[in-house]
Amino acid sequence: MSEQTRKLYHSSLLLLSLVLLLGLGLYIQKNSSVFVYLKSLRPDYILLLLAMHALDFYLVGIIQKLPLSKHNITLKFKEWYGLCVTAELFNMLLPAKGGTGIRMLYLKDNKGLAIREFLSMSFAVVMIGFTFLGSVGLLYCHFFLKKNQAMSVLLESVFLALAVSGVALLFFTETVGKIFKFKRRYSPKLYLKDYKLTALTTLAWIGVFLLYPIKVYLAFTAIGIEINFIDSFEISMILLIISLFQVLPGNMGVKEIVTAYIGKQYGIEFEAALLASLIDRVIMLLFLFPMGFYFYWQLFLEASLPKAFRVIKLKQSAQTSP
């Protein structure tokens, strides 16, 4: 893809995001009566939802940190958690998981991790998540969802594709390495054959996947909408699939519309489900923007300040310390 084509592609995605957000705004304006749900807003549930987002970033940060042990790279909490939050911030601002490039550049410039190694590492942990999500989703759809619904058939097909592709890539990494021209020492097999690393990564992924239905449940109940945990679990499975295939920055607008549509299938008013999804988005952004910019300053901008400014800052810190 040429530079001009890439710029056009990214500009189109950003424009589409803005159009979707504008459409959501106009829809909400025409259906302003839905805001009556805000009278039932539960502050305690909002705080719990905020904590769930913070915990979600914590678990994702662990998933991203674990494989670095294979290269004897140790990160402080500020680094691995900060990189996770900063990357997600840039995923909200840039298309096609642009935040991944932020992590890659930091690890390359500050820890000496080669780009091929970063890509192999990321490929391995993503495949573990793909395989686990596909397997669990497939089993749930096969045994618990109604078979006469088109949505159930579609979900089962998607999870089957995830499970099969995940297993194929996990057990045929050498073939994948040849296709993508990975050198042997950069193969994802380096990480996948480490059973302790694979087990810990799987446990962290389980935590991430379990948080999704909890967040869905809290978002709906925070505005007084009754929803049982099983329904929130099924809605979250669909949202998980969408999150894996992010194209628009942060899936802005897409996640909200899908949540509203799926919520309607469970007997929830379309506008109410849309409002619950928007509240979840706002709560996440209330955490993500201040923390993301803080860690971006700490990890990227502060180190690039001119030496004179850093000396002044050190002197100021020495004067304020007891």
Instruction: Figure out the total of helices.
Output: 13
Shape: globular
Q: Unreliable stretches, pLDDT < 50, 5 or more residues?
A: none
Helix content range: over 70%
Instruction: Output the structural class.
Output: mainly alpha
Kindly estimate the percentage of residues that lie in beta strands according to DSSP: under 5%
Major sheet size, sense and barrel closure:
none
Radius of gyration: 21 Å
Keywords summarizing the entry:
cell membrane, L-PG_synthase/AglD, transmembrane helix, 322 residues, 76% helix, mainly alpha
Overview of this protein structure:
With 322 residues, this protein is an all-alpha fold. The protein has a domain at 44-131 and 181-302. It is built from 13 helices and no strands. It starts with a helix and ends with a helix. The model has no long low-confidence stretch (mean pLDDT 79).
